[in-house]
Structures are given as C-alpha cells and as structure tokens.
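Technical note accompanying the year-one report. For the benefit of new consortium partners, we illustrate the data format agreed upon in the data management plan: each record pairs a sequence with a structure-token string. No post-processing was applied to the example shown here.
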Amino acid sequence: MAELLAHKHVLVCVGSGGVGKTTTAAALALAAADQGQRVVVVTIDPARRLADAMGMSGRLGGEPRLVELDTPGELWASMLDARATFDRLVVDQARDPVQAERIMANPFYDNMAGALSGTQEYMASEELYALWSDERFDLVVVDTPPSRHALDFVDAPQRLVSLLDNRVYRMLTAPSRGMVRVVSVAARAFVRMASNVVGTQVLEDAVTFFEAFDGMQDGFRARARAVTDLLAGPETGFVLVASPRPDTVDEAIALDDALAARGIPVAALVVNLLHPDPSAGVPATDRALLETLDPDHPLSRRWQTACDLAATAARERAAIAPLAERHLGRPVAHLPRFEVDVRDLTALADFGAALVDVQR
C-alpha cells in the first residue's frame, strides 16, 4: 500500500456499503500526508461519513479544507457540491460571461443541475479532474458511494459524450432551432409529444437552454474524454474494499469484473472487519493440555471462546479466498475489527498505519 501511495496521483476507493470504504479512503489520505505528500480526500457519497471519520462532522463543503495536522505533508478534505461544480464547469467552457449567465439563469438548467439522473456522478468525475489538475495537491483520494453508484461515476463521462452525440440532442441544437422554427416532421412530432408530457413552458425552457448551450459541446466532450482517460490511466489506482461477509465478497467480485470490462484493473484490495484468530501461535503441546481441562475450569472456558473465534476467523478466510485469489501479485491488506469506531484523527492514523503496515 505504501508503494501505491508513492506512485499514484489518484486513488479511487470502491466497494459495497458498510465495509469501511470511507474510513479506508480517509486513512490512505492521512498515511500519504504522513509520508510528506499534499493530499486531498473528497467524498462523492451524499452521506457525511467522511467528516465523521475525520472528526469533522458538519464542517466539510465543496471547497477543500485544510486539516490541522502535525505531519510532514498536508491533508485537505472536501465533499462534492454538484451544483457548484456544474456552475464552475459552465463558466470554464462558456464563450464569455454572458453565455454562462444565460445558461445558469435558465430554469431547465436549475432543475438539471440539481436533480437530473447522472448529474451527481458526472460532476463527481469533473471534480476529480479539477482536483487532479490543481497544483496544490500531489494525490487525490476519492471516496465513492456503494458499488452501483461507483460504476455510474466511472461511466458518467462516456454517458455525457453519448448524450451530446444523441440524435434528439442534435435536433434541438441544430440551426433553425427553437419552438417555432423546428422544421422537420420528426422534430415537430417530438415537440408535440414532449409538450403534452412536461408542458409547453418546461419544453420552452429546455429548448432555450440548449440554444444557450450552443458552441460548448466540443469543450464538454473533450473534458469528458479527458476524465475517462484519467480514470483508466496509469496515474489512477482503484482500491477495492470488502469485508468477509459472503454477500459483500460476491458484490466485490462483480465490481471487480465490471471495472475490468471497462479496462480498469483494481490496483489493490482491502479486506476490512476481520476477526483475529486468538488460538494462532499456541503450541501444540499447550493445545493438548487445554483440551484435557475440565469444561468448568475458567481456563477451559476461555480456551473454548478462543476456539470459537478461531472458527469464525477460518470461515472469514474461506469467504474471502475467491476474492483474494483474483488479486495475487497485487497489494492486499487484511485489517482486523478495531475495538472502537474510527471517529477522530488519532484512531484514523492507527487505522492508516495498519493499512500501509507501518509501526506507530
């Protein structure tokens, strides 16, 4: 894991819910700061788990915030603000401030920026690209939502390109555009149908928006492709986080396959929440003696508890074996259940030290 921190510029933590993905992302970022890097960790999960894990509940926003630490490097943290990111992208890509203002004042844009399916995921990928381009940071660590939404995040840039190439979109932004000036039979049929479904005013706002958007398509398309290249490129590493429950292992394997199908190999595996085996290291002669004790003997009861935990640990190792075998030759971290929840920087540092195998 330390090698991964040293050689990647982007780390994306993915996995199902409840496996410690947010804690892993925050701990990796803190460990990199301990190594002297300038790191920003950003969560695109609407839940506020990142702030909780760092002891900063309620104090994270869209602008990266410097965490006060006594480390050689710097640790910054932020939470995705999709609307602010969309506004910034429009300003960056517009011909001039007038075009940007026309777009952002349009009611259709207001609805799309806040509620349209896929907007959150695309703005997350855009935020990643912006942070990666920011000279303040050496490393960007991303905490994603659970598996399905993580794939939406990966797919979002290509979906934007597909939208910009879509026949209906091209029709709405073609010359002779506008409600009255749509001339083709197919376009008029589309306008009538859409007006009946969403209302004339909504469709007027949409057409006005697309009209204002004219000329920005190439910039958005180029940016989306650059984000796709970054996600699949050598500077980025995907860290797959799982726990030893069979259902989360199955979900992790499915996510591993889905990423591979997109040309994105998983760079490292983290298996969280493992039970330790308290019987490991007990000599065979001592085991034999313990087995002969009277069942009511206090030491016998403690030994039985240890054996029960050892059986649990063995079941967990068997559960994660199919996943671990897929990652031979890549970093694999096995982390035990911690005695306390990770809700402050001290506990997070301990978690990070275990993650990168550093003695504290």
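Partners are asked to follow this layout when depositing records. The beta strands are 10-14, 38-43, 65-67, 74-79, 139-143, 236-242, 266-274, 332-336.
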